[in-house]
Design a protein that fits this description.
Elements: H1 7-11, H2 21-25, H3 29-32, H4 39-50, H5 58-64, H6 72-76, H7 83-97, H8 101-110, H9 114-129, H10 132-139, H11 149-152, E1 171-172, E2 180-184, H12 188-193, H13 195-207, E3 210-213, H14 223-227, H15 231-246, E4 252-255, H16 258-263, H17 266-273, H18 279-286, E5 289-291, H19 292-299, E6 313-317, H20 321-327, H21 331-338, E7 343-345, H22 361-364, H23 366-381, E8 387-389, H24 393-405, E9 411-413, H25 415-424
């Protein structure tokens, strides 16, 4: 769809009254303190792009690219402007006019082909296990990497050698009486970087009466493509996944990744596919999508049996932006943690403030990302927690790096992993 005719661009820009509320909540503006980094400035920039007062140039993209797309400004805007949608639409418009060979390779070739993405991750895991990544750092070879990657590559550590898909069955029967048939949307981050989360998800769902189906042909949710100006590619991925999951007779489609469930939500589907022929199919699909923690608490209402415990483990929680801001889901993860007998839950200050990860943001804006991360770690460490829980692979990767940088003895973990561990500690029935 033409940039000027996109609903956010056509209908929302004039709502902005330049009140500045967005500046007071934006994590990027709090570090840069420049109007061009403020959401209000981005709205004005998109308006100038639409009106032809500025050209779709790389310099404009870089200014818009400072945004985390965390949606904090959108949920706090008194005028109800979806600033993140305006920003994403503008990035895509600029990219169409100034394409990048590197982005074509990464987001159209690599990230749309699960097999190729899996192979690249396997190679990265081998490089790390052989010590070649450390060798490259020590000898200065990483300095030849473009942009911020020479420093940001440190964030990509501990890549597992086996994906979750290679360890899980396509169809996982319910244990005991079957209550629901659920499709598991196994996202790239969970599949390739956090297979223990996927295994825990299947374990907990099947224990609670769910038959879990993992379609083999599913692809990326498209959120990384939206953030990097590749809206057309994100649309193609969405259409592909809709067709795959709608071919099954599913009660729910469950995701343990905040970014995935946000990308698959009705609101995001309307942004991507509104007005297209597949819109009805998209809404049918999105109507079944639910975040894992919300499903476990509100639909299954799981109860974990009590057991003899010598000492509780203190756990705190970080709100992923794509869960708390994009979907308004804050209580379910906390309630799930509180239902685990071994857990003493403690709230951290500013739990819903962005960690600075935001998918690929920490790789492209390393210094700024680290400033935002440092504030998050300061808040988390005040809790004295031994576990730092979150529901997003991107956040997990960022927080693990933060824990390492701070020399903090704390495990970053998805709530469902703690639930699965608690179940496995129960006495085996004869």
């Amino acid at each position: 769809m033409e940039f000027k005719k996109l609903p956010p661009v056509k209908e929302q820009i004039m709502k902005c009254v330049r009140c500045g509320k967005c500046r007071s909540v934006c994590p990027v503006f709090s570090e840069i303190r420049n109007e061009t980094a403020a959401p209000r400035g981005h709205v004005f920039m998109v308006q100038m792009l639409r009106d032809g007062k500025v050209e779709p140039e790389k310099a404009v993209y870089e200014k818009l690219g400072n945004c985390l797309l965390c949606e904090t400004c959108s949920i706090n805007c008194p005028s109800g402007i979806d600033v993140h949608e305006l920003n994403a639409a503008a990035r895509s418009y600029i990219y169409e006019n100034k394409p990048s060979t590197t982005k074509e390779l990464v987001f159209d070739t690599l990230w749309t082909k699960p097999g190729l993405l899996k192979t690249s991750t396997w190679i990265m895991s081998g490089v790390q296990k052989l010590g070649l990544q450390t060798f490259a750092r020590n000898t200065g070879l990483t300095k030849i990497l473009p942009g911020d990657l020479s420093r940001a590559e440190k964030i990509m550590s501990g890549v597992p050698s086996r994906s979750a898909r290679s360890q899980l069955k396509r169809v996982n029967p319910a244990q005991g009486e079957k209550k629901f048939t659920v499709g598991y949307f196994l996202g790239c981050g969970t599949d390739l970087l956090n297979p223990e989360i996927a295994k825990a998800t299947v374990d907990v769902l099947t224990r609670n009466g769910c038959e879990v189906i993992i379609p083999k042909d599913a692809k990326c949710c498209g959120m990384p493509h939206v953030a990097n100006g590749k809206l057309d590619t994100a649309r193609r991925l969405a259409v592909h996944n809709i067709k795959i999951y709608n071919s099954f007779n599913l009660d729910y489609i469950i995701s343990d990744c905040a970014s995935c469930s946000s990308a698959l939500s009705a609101k995001h589907m309307e942004f991507l596919l509104g007005g297209l022929k597949i819109e009805d199919e998209a809404q049918q699909f999105a109507g079944k999508v639910m975040d894992l923690t919300q499903f476990l608490v509100e639909v299954l209402d799981i109860k974990i049996p009590e057991k003899n415990i010598d000492e509780l483990t203190r756990v705190t929680y970080h709100d992923p932006c794509h869960l708390a801001n994009a979907q308004g889901i804050k209580q379910a993860p906390r309630e799930l943690l509180k239902r685990i007998p071994e857990v003493e839950f403690v709230e951290m200050p500013e739990a819903n403030r962005c960690c600075g990860g935001s998918g690929t943001y920490s790789l492209t804006h390393y210094d700024l990302s680290m400033k935002i991360l440092d504030r998050k770690m300061d808040n988390a460490m005040t809790t004295g927690a031994k576990k730092l829980a979150t529901c997003c692979p991107s956040c997990s990767m960022q927080l693990k790096y933060g824990v390492e940088r701070c020399h903090w003895q704390c495990e970053v973990v998805h709530p469902v992993v703690l639930v699965s561990r608690s179940y496995r500690q129960l006495p085996v029935r004869s």
